[in-house]
Amino acid sequence: MKVDIHQSWRPHLEEEFNQPYFSSLAGFVREEYSRHTCYPKGSRIFAAFDHSAFEQTKVVILGQDPYHGPGQANGLCFSVRDGITHPPSLVNIFKEVEQDVGHPYPKSGNLERWADQGILLLNAILTVRAGEAGSHQNKGWEQFTDAVIRILSREKQDLVFLLWGGYAKKKATLIDRGKHSILTSGHPSPLSANRGLWFGNGHFSKTNDFLKSKGKDPIVW
């Protein structure tokens, strides 16, 4: 696996790339992609970093692993490629955006427009085998992405971390609450949203309120 990642991240992550676990992970990913259909395509594995340079990152949204259906995953958590039907969680995200900040429901589910404004749309696991959710868990991706969160927490100031659902909320232990804003809620999946744990969390307006209070440009959701 070639680590094709935005140059701004390399000084901060080079130590991780040189760790034995990452070498093992790279070998596993190469083998999986050579023997099976996997998502996202190889050139998009590190897309979240490519669209949100280290210096520009000001918001972090955490997902779990990529969509495993044909043509869906584009390397950004919760995001799908242009022209792809919106998965249920993304539908609920857009509904909350509409309710919270009045931005109309968009035609495209491609969240590159968010990432290009400095939102790191980071899955904990960056690859998956087609049709097999969670198939690349516990192979080293979690160790790598936990390191990313720790490094952001340590080396940056005044970030907003959006942690949706139980899995993401556990990552709060990696973040310095004294330096950053952490917003938590239920997951946008129908199971959680239909139980009243997602809608009305106001995370999109709260994120912008925090950014503006720190002299940063708000996000155009």
What do you see in this structure?
The protein has 221 residues and is an alpha/beta fold. 37% of the residues lie in helices and 11% in strands. It contains nine helices and six strands, in the order ααβαβααββαβαβαα. The strands form two sheets. A four-stranded parallel β-sheet has the order 3-2-5-6. The protein has a two-stranded antiparallel ribbon with strand order 1-4. Strand 5, helix 7 and strand 6 form a beta-alpha-beta unit. The relative contact order is 0.16. It catalyses: Hydrolyzes single-stranded DNA or mismatched double-stranded DNA and polynucleotides, releasing free uracil. Its main location: cytoplasm. This is Uracil-DNA glycosylase. Belongs to the uracil-DNA glycosylase (UDG) superfamily. UNG family. Pfam families: UDG.
List keywords for this structure.
221 residues, alpha/beta, four-stranded parallel sheet, two-stranded antiparallel sheet
Quick summary:
It is built from 9 helices and 6 strands, in the order ααβαβααββαβαβαα. The chain has 221 residues and is an alpha/beta fold.
Query: Helix amount, in percent?
Result: 25-40%
Order of helices and strands: HHEHEHHEEHEHEHH
Structural class: alpha/beta
- State the helix count: 9
Name the poorly predicted regions: none
Q: What is the rounded distance between the termini?
A: 33 Å
Strand content: 5-15%
Helices, strands, pairings?
Layout: H1 10-17, H2 20-35, E1 38-39, H3 47-51, E2 59-63, H4 88-101, H5 112-115, E3 119-123, E4 128-129, H6 141-155, E5 160-164, H7 166-169, E6 181-185, H8 190-193, H9 203-213
Parallel strand pairs: 2-3, 2-5, 5-6
Antiparallel strand pairs: 1-4
